[in-house]
Structures are given as structure tokens and as C-alpha cells.
Amino acid sequence: MTSAGEGPRVLLGVGGGIAAYKVCELLRRLTESGHRVRVIPTRDALRFVGEPTWAALSGEPVTTEVWSGVEEVPHVRLGQGADLVFVAPATANLLAKAAHGIADDLLTNTLLTARCPVVFAPAMHTEMWEHPATQANVETLRRRGSIVIEPAVGRLTGADSGRGRLPDPDALFDAARGVLARGGAAAARDLAGRHVVVSAGGTREPIDPVRFIGNRSSGMQGYALARTALARGARVTLVAANVTLPDPAGAEIVRTGSTREMRDAVLKAAADADAVVMAAAVADFRPADYEDVKIKKTPGAEPAPIHLVENPDILAELVRESRDVAGRVIVGFAAETHDVLENGRRKLARKGCDLLVVNQVGEHLAFGRPDNAAVILSADGAAVDVPRGSKEALSDVVWDLVAARMT
């Protein structure tokens, strides 16, 4: 538990992987933001970053053994007194030990005694991450309530690239802060074991190789939904259209451009999803014809009209395909400029989704801003008013309502 006069107590477990050097920056971010951090490395972790470095950065003693300071019973007391255990990098070996309850050093003993949220940030080569043994261990940990975030895709050790890279320290810090913001272990992990799909950004419909029909969506609300779902323990697939934001640590990112591309990606990801939140701004229409070369301006001539055709209705299709899937929750978004509630209720009735997040948009509202306000309408007629605040705050209200319907 957190003592009076001190910040949240974080136990930072460090596995024996080359990515341990990144965790030094995560430790700095945690301590500078007021968290009390005790680093518990494995023996192999000290081959990459030495004990003096961890002790100097944390201001706390560092040991790998249960036999140091035995009078304080550290292998029990550390886990009992923590607000968060965050393990990075979580190697394949460390995940296997945690999944099978092996306790052969201070870190693995602490994992057995912790009653706070536990987060694993895996890092390893792609083949090791994809091996059935590792995937089974990850599934076991998630089923027990631990949060195992998906590794990033990128450069690995040597010349190799692929899935297995430890996310950058800023993304790990955001993940840790998000879990701590949720409070107790049960509240922090209410989406553990669930797969959620979130769409984000704005689709673009090409006119020619240079021009497109688009909208002002930045993807910030969808990315906030992904981050908060990750912090609550979910496995997250984020289908992003034309977004330049940093990837949330642990989300599987699927890049799309047009509405038809997003439709295919969302429906594929939703096949085993417990919830789908369509936060993307999806174009209702697209040009009927695409020009293979740039359309040139003819001086003195009127531009040729652009004929539009209707795009697929992804939300309505999701609702239709989910009618026979017990427990799946479908959430839509409605961006309105006027008659917000009236238009929102009509859209909810037309689409048939479980929840509809209705927000007013405009020149200086919602798009590209860190704040948002909304009314969340439900199929049973209820309405939840969410006052203006951070997009993370709105996201948590959405997941509260989704989790309640799953339960």
C-alpha cells in the first residue's frame, strides 16, 4: 500500500534481455513523476545493466536474491506493499517462470506475493514470441488477471526485425501510469482476458494519385480508447486510418487508408473480439471513378464534377454479424455539428449498436484536441452525460459501460 506522504510504490522487474537498457529511461520517468520505485532485476539482467546503475537511478537498494535483508522478509513484503509490479523486458524465460509459479529469485518470488496489478512487457525475437509455448504462457498469465502487453514491431538484436521489440520508454510509462490511475487490482484488470477492437483516425477516399476526400479526425480519441483498454488488461487491436500518433504500447496496429480497407480490417479483427469500438471518422461516400493520373486544371474551363457513391456501412455490418455472438458489445461514435442528441438517437436506432458515443464537433471542438465531451446513449434508452475532460477520461467511461455489459 502507498504510505502517507509518498507516491505510488512501483516494483520494476527487469529481465535478462538486451532491451534492459531502455528500462533505465522508464525508471527515470517514473521517479521524476513522483513514484517510489524499487528495481528487482534477475541475475541475467545485471549482465546488461549493472546494480550500481539501478541503485543510483532509483535511490533504493537493489538485489536479485531472497537472502539479502532476510530480517525484512523481502520476498513477501515487497509484493504485499506494492501498488504496481511492472516487468520489462519480460523475456520468454521469465514469462514461463511466472506462468508456472517457479520462484527461484527475488523477482519471481515477488510475482507470487503481489496482490496489486502486474504488467509484463515482453521483449524477445519474433520466433520466440510466436512459439506455442510462449503464447500458452501469455494466455495463462492473462487468464489469471495479469496484463501482458503486445510487443512492438521493429528492429531487434542484430539485423533482425519483426514483432518482439520492447516498446519505447514513453509508451511504457504511459501504460504504467494508466494502470495506476485505475486504482486497485480488480478495477485495473476488468478487461483482462478480453479482446477488443478499436478503430481510429479518418478514412481517405482517393480522387487521383494526389487528391482525396477526407476529414479532420486526428485519431486521438481512438488512441485514448486503445491506451485505456490496455491499462485495464485487454488485448487490443487498433485499426488506424491515416494516423501519425505514437503507437500505444502493447496494441496490435493495423494500418488502413480508405473505408473499404478499414471495413476488411475491422471485420477480420472482430472475428474473435469481445467488443468493437468504432471511433474512426469513416467517410460515407467515395468518388465513383478514380483517375490514374493527376487531374490537370484546364484554364478557363469548368472542373469536371466528382460523382460520389455510398461506402460500406461498417458499424451496421458489425451489428448484423454480431447478433449471434453472445456477449459481444458494439459501440459506435456519432460526430454531430447540430441537433446533437436528436441526430444521435436517430443514428442509434438506425444502426442498432449497443452504445453510441455522441459528441459535438466543429472548428475548435473534438478534432485534434486533447479534450472531449459526449453523451453515451444505450440501446435500452439510458444516457450518460460525460462532461468535458481528457479523452482518456471519456474512454474510461466507455469501457466502464462496455465491461458492465460483458459481465
Automatic annotation (TrEMBL):
Residues 191-404 form the DNA/pantothenate metabolism flavoprotein C-terminal domain. Keywords: Decarboxylase, Flavoprotein, FMN, Ligase, Lyase, Magnesium, Metal-binding, Multifunctional enzyme. Its cofactor is FMN; Mg(2+). GO terms for molecular function: FMN binding; metal ion binding; phosphopantothenate--cysteine ligase activity; phosphopantothenoylcysteine decarboxylase activity. Pathway: Cofactor biosynthesis; coenzyme A biosynthesis; CoA from (R)-pantothenate: step 3/5; Cofactor biosynthesis; coenzyme A biosynthesis; CoA from (R)-pantothenate: step 2/5. Binds 1 FMN per subunit. One of its GO terms (cellular component) is phosphopantothenoylcysteine decarboxylase complex. It catalyses: N-[(R)-4-phosphopantothenoyl]-L-cysteine + H(+) = (R)-4'-phosphopantetheine + CO2; (R)-4'-phosphopantothenate + L-cysteine + CTP = N-[(R)-4-phosphopantothenoyl]-L-cysteine + CMP + diphosphate + H(+). One of its GO terms (biological process) is coenzyme A biosynthetic process. Residues 9-158 form the Flavoprotein domain. Transmembrane segments: none annotated. Its EC number is 4.1.1.36, 6.3.2.5. Pfam families: DFP, Flavoprotein. Residues 1-195 are annotated as: Phosphopantothenoylcysteine decarboxylase. Residues 196-407 are annotated as: Phosphopantothenate--cysteine ligase. Catalyzes two steps in the biosynthesis of coenzyme A. In the first step cysteine is conjugated to 4'-phosphopantothenate to form 4-phosphopantothenoylcysteine, in the latter compound is decarboxylated to form 4'-phosphopantotheine. Catalyzes two sequential steps in the biosynthesis of coenzyme A. In the first step cysteine is conjugated to 4'-phosphopantothenate to form 4-phosphopantothenoylcysteine. In the second step the latter compound is decarboxylated to form 4'-phosphopantotheine. In the N-terminal section; belongs to the HFCD (homo-oligomeric flavin containing Cys decarboxylase) superfamily. NCBIfam families: coaBC_dfp. This is Coenzyme A biosynthesis bifunctional protein CoaBC. It comes from Actinoallomurus iriomotensis. The lineage of its organism: Bacteria, Bacillati, Actinomycetota, Actinomycetes, Streptosporangiales. The gene is coaBC.
